[in-house]
Amino acid sequence: MSEYKVVGYSLPQIDARERALGLAEFVSDIKLSGMLHGRILRSPYPHARILHIDTSKAKALIGVKAVVTAEDTPKIRFGPRTDDWAILAMDKVRFVGDEVAAVAALDEETAEEALGLIRVDYEELPAVFDPLEAMKPEAPLIHDKERNIVSEFKLAKGDVDQAFKESDIVHSASYYTSQVYQAYLEPMACVTDIDLTGKLTFYLATQIPSMTRLTYAKALNLPLEKIRVVVPYYGGAFGGKMETNLHLAAAVLSQKTGRPIRMVNPREEDFIAGNPRVPMYIDLKMGAKKDGTLTAKEVSVIGAAGGRAVYSMVIVATACYRVDSLYHFQNLKTEGVTAYTNTVPTGCFRGFGNAQMTFAIESSMDMIAEAIGMDPAELRIKNGLKTGEVSIHGWKIGSSGLTECIRKATEASGWREKRAQKRSARGIGLACCNHVSGNRAFAREFDGGAGIVRVGREGKVLVYHGESDMGQGQRTIFAQIVAEELGVPVDRVEVARVDTDISPFGLGSFATRGTVFGGNGVKAAAADARRQIFELAAEMLEANPVDLEAKEGKIFVKGAPEKNLPFQKVAENGLYKRGGAPIVGTGFWVPDTVLPDPVTKYGNISPAYPFACQIAEVEVDTETGEVKMLSYVAAHDVGRAINPQTTEGQIQGGVAQGIGWALMENMVTERGRVINPNFRDYVIPGPLDLPPIKPILVEPIDPNGPFGAKGIGEPALNPVPAAVANAIYNAIGVRITELPISPEKILKGLKAKK
Amino acid sequence: MKYSLVLTVNEENVEFQINPNRTLLEVIRNDLGLTGTKEGCGTGECGACTVLLDGEPVNACLTLALQAHGKRVTTIEGLSKGGTVHPLQEAFITYGAIQCGFCTPGMILSAKALLDRKPKPKEMEIREALIGNLCRCTGYQKIVEAITSYVKDH
Fold it and tell me: Is residue A502 predicted with pLDDT exceeding 90?
């Protein structure tokens, strides 16, 4: 039972009805008058110079309204972090799938036919596909740089060499985390439109509506006010829907034709030109005392950026040092390198580097526990950061439910009993994680959340925010928060779709920041609206505003509920009193986080840190190497669950996605070309591949989160591959350190044991 | 050369002159403007385009429109005709079985096809019936729970 009226309840999503009825308008459903269909011509080569492009035949095809190349763009180099993007290739193509030209036609079939009529003369160049090779000075250069290095990360604290000398055990291992595809059900899609002043409206599936404007304004050489982003319903993202050339190519076609352009990636193109997870080579050396105290950690990370940098260098940096705030560490040495490769540009995917490193560290922790004869659960509890502590990088742990997560997960899974038994080919494994709820370092300018809450004459509440609901239920969370704050039932609250012409600037939905930042932003706006409502009600009730309370749609004097006014009556009265103006509350929330020191990385970067402990149970078929998931328990410190059912759904989805990464998914490439760009050959979990997933919500009530809430999105996935790998080791004594954990690797491991 | 296509969609008779290479998915979404049926892959692997053809679940992206000639098609919009939400849809809503919602129309229709055939399926039978419908958001669990609870209540 929640102490609140709306927050803390498993209410159905406020827009579930539209989605269930098929009435929710997704980006790929939008139809505008005069709309044309766009397609992109993509490079068939991983690395080539463009000698000549002949678009004449394509332009002449009946039904084709425009064919554009780089010549039709401002030819500006831009990017979310670096300046190595071009809307359409200017001099070279740098990966199979790179955007070379775009067409707009009356229908999809004509657009596709037109692509085949564009003639491009390429001069193939030597290409490099693995970051280890690409880093070398003699590798073919992909961009105008001396080396194929996007960026490097270096960090050192204390004295690792001395600490290793003083350790009772030093453990080293090398890991590889694979490049996997977000596989959201709706492919990347957009509709662009243009008005007579040249103002572009982008209907986008985007996690970052406001930030996208900044990048696109630069790319198109337009003032920011000429770019409007609207976010309709869209079918999932998991990190993969940030800035993309698909949108910009459509915009250029709108500029050329003066008409709306619909551009949707065919699924195969989404595979080859999306933004899959940054693959990483991780070398991890850890020291510990025989009582389990961790002493030192030395790690090197090498990640592939692909043909251009999306967010890969930030992801590698995150991999380098986020786990430093999971356990107590005093001695650290970390090096990270992000290298260009002639492969599809890699980007954000749930976990953002922390997922990759969590696989490594939680596998190593498992092996350290075994070496010192300690229960892996106890090893985590001993070293895990607790409430009130400050990590080595100055992260202030306002609340930590890690220990409770471990205790509850081990209890619910039968951990102790199952570890004590010797069960043939059955095993149980544990892994923990930490994460952030938003990251001050992501945008230099600021971090924060804002909201606008409008109360109309009917007492209906409309909430404006600047973040993004990709299906995770953010709009519902915002509605619950605002409803609680205003004391109205949640069905009186609507959440407007994001329109950058009206909505507040929001950094967006990534870094698991939505609930805390967006939530606190709309909460502040609702509080402002409530202040105005109370002023009006106080006059009507002849009372003092400070003595008023709002609950279940009524405003009343505390302690005298019989003297009350319906919320709607106050809103209506307010409108009449104020010349017709609705009540509009605005508010914002800025946490006291800091940009980390550029050298030491010291600084509290997030207002709230979620933790988790997950336990996987598997059965291995020792003849085929196949792994069957038997059960899964996921205990998550979420601060407070604003909506327990929504939170559980996120956990189950994250675990499913993690199991896919651990066991089933693999982007297979041949000379940089993805050779399995479809759901038949790139297998994501189906309903028969998953065990029952039991989510456990741990609620320490965070001091900074809205009503004590922290985030859930990425922590849901982070521990999964390690939990599965640890369970497999427990089952058959085979340690796999490279994802995916395929049947071949298991059989190889079993053979080596004999 | 265009061919005559006559069929019933959500219990309404409709008629078109169409090219033979048009898919049922294209006709549903573009010609009928029923965008509840989604395109997730275009190659019959994800199930987002699932519709019922004479009660049987099919991938509309792999069904030529002319293959539906003379037949009854049910799309997701057909479940809530006249504005009443189908109890199966209510179950999905109530039990948190919907996140982004892109797989949802296909998922619900596959579930309906199963329940029309077998009103009291066991959990494994439910999971097997949904094998042609991919979901990336939910991990399927609340979808199965929603269907299970619907079975219990009806």
Answer: yes
B82-126 tens-digit pLDDT:
889 999 999 999 999 999 999 999 999 999 999 999 999 999 999
pLDDT (tens digit, 9 = 90+) per residue, A684-694?
A: 999 999 999 99
CA distances (Å), origin A672, targets A202, A255, A320: 31, 33, 26
Q: pLDDT confidence of A422, banded at 50, 70, 90?
A: confident
Q: Which residue of B has its CA nearest to A649?
A: B138
Distance CA A582, CA A462 (A): 11
Chain A residues close to B39, C-beta within 8 Å = 28, 264
Give the 3-state secondary structure of A456-493: CCCCCEEEECCCCCCCCCHHHHHHHHHHHHHCCCHHHE
Q: Does domain A31-125+185-236+241-272 have CATH number 3.90.1170.50?
A: yes
Q: B126: nearest CA in chain A?
A: A687
State whether B136 and A26 contact (CB < 8 Å): no
Q: Is the ipTM of this complex over 0.90?
A: yes
Computed from CA positions of residues A135, A141, A146, A148, in that sequence, does the dihedral angle turn out positive or negative? negative
Return the residue of B nearest to A17 by Cα.
B93
Please tell me the distance in Å from B145's CA to the nearest CA on chain A: 11
Domains A16-24+448-589 and A31-125+185-236+241-272 share a fold: no
Tell whether pTM > 0.95: yes
Look up the CATH number of domain A16-24+448-589. Answer: 3.30.365.10
Distance from CA of A324 to the nearest CA of B (A): 29
Contacts of B89 in chain A (CB under 8 A): 17, 20-21
Q: Considering CB atoms only, which of A471, A652, A654 is closest to B142?
A: A652
